[in-house]
Amino acid sequence: MQSALAVTARENGVSVDALQASTPELWIYNPALLTPYAGQTVLGWRMEVTPRTELLPVRQLVLVEAKRGGIALSFNQIDYAKNRLTYDTGGTNILPGTLVCNESNPTCTGGSADAINAHVFAGQTYDAYVNNHGRDSIDGAGMALISTVNYDDVSGGPTYQTLLEWRAMVYGAGFSSADDVVAHELTHGVTQYESNLFYYYQSGAINESFSDVWGEFVDLSNGMGTDTAATRWQMGEDLTAFGVIRDMEDPTLYGDPDKMTSVNYSFDTSYADNGGVHSNSGINNKAVFLMVDGGTFNGRTVTGLNIVKVAKFITTPKPTCRIQAQIIWICIMPCSLPALRSPVPPGSRPPIVRKCLTRSTRLR
Questions:
Q1: Separation between Cα atoms, residue 55 and residue 59, nearest integer Å
Q2: Residue predicted with more confidence, 20 or 33
Q3: Which of 87, 114, 150, 180 is the most buried (most CB within 10 A)?
Q4: How far apart are CA 164 and CA 197, in angstroms?
Q5: Secondary structure letter of residue 325 according to DSSP
Q6: Cβ proximity of 284 and 306 under 8 Å
Q7: Domain extents in the chain
Q8: What is the predicted pLDDT for the residue at 80?
């Protein structure tokens, strides 16, 4: 069993302590059964090695020779295939544009600066979801990550958006320069496939916040971009075409609320922002900042859990979550835990969330 754990850890770049093995079963195996190669028939102990607790993309079939203890067979049964297709319109509004790089060119060598950024940051976003949630792309089933850069919308000028009906990302000139923006937009796709939150009022604010959260998680963990103490929680600090959009550490710096009772809370009576979906994202953004870094807010002191722990349990709300309007910001964290697969009774919270919210800070 130790041999199976060791080879799996080595081949997948994980710790042996993070893995567990199934009860060994005797198998008779010859390479000709599975491969084009003939070989010696051996008697071996067949085990399946999986993560002990973490969401790692590992389900390794291992066959250990019963007589000599060598590894006769070892392979991961989980199929993950990053598939990026990055296009460049060259400043036109004709989609998708010219294909400039795919997985055969992982760094998009020879592409424009915008194409390189879109391609690399899309790959880093893919990796973040695989490593933290075992999720294979936007739809969880290997969907291609299609990006178009240097798009010029004649009617409105350069823009950036997620065209989910076209299953693609479209960026105006300079809008793919920020890793958090690229991850933000791709996360809108994840949200659609997981919970399809209405892009309206509080539901829409949750939608926007989860995109901000994962945008920053990618930004703060990829070793690229500007991540100084002053810019650490800014959205779009590297956005050459626009500049900083929001601040998750202090949403009020950009006129956004940091709690439900904030004077900045938007009712958006003119519907200019679909009920304040961008502005009101600041509430959950502030909560996530506190969970990661800690701090004092609203008369309470929060001990940060660090980004690695928080990234492991925060994902997009499931469609089974019962989120009532009057407790939506309390429900959002229980619903976000991947361990929850059944409806959440109003007011109930898992222990880790109770520690983060009830004992630490008040969102109302």
A1: 11
A2: 20
A3: 180
A4: 14
A5: G
A6: no
A7: 2-76, 84-177, 201-358
A8: 62
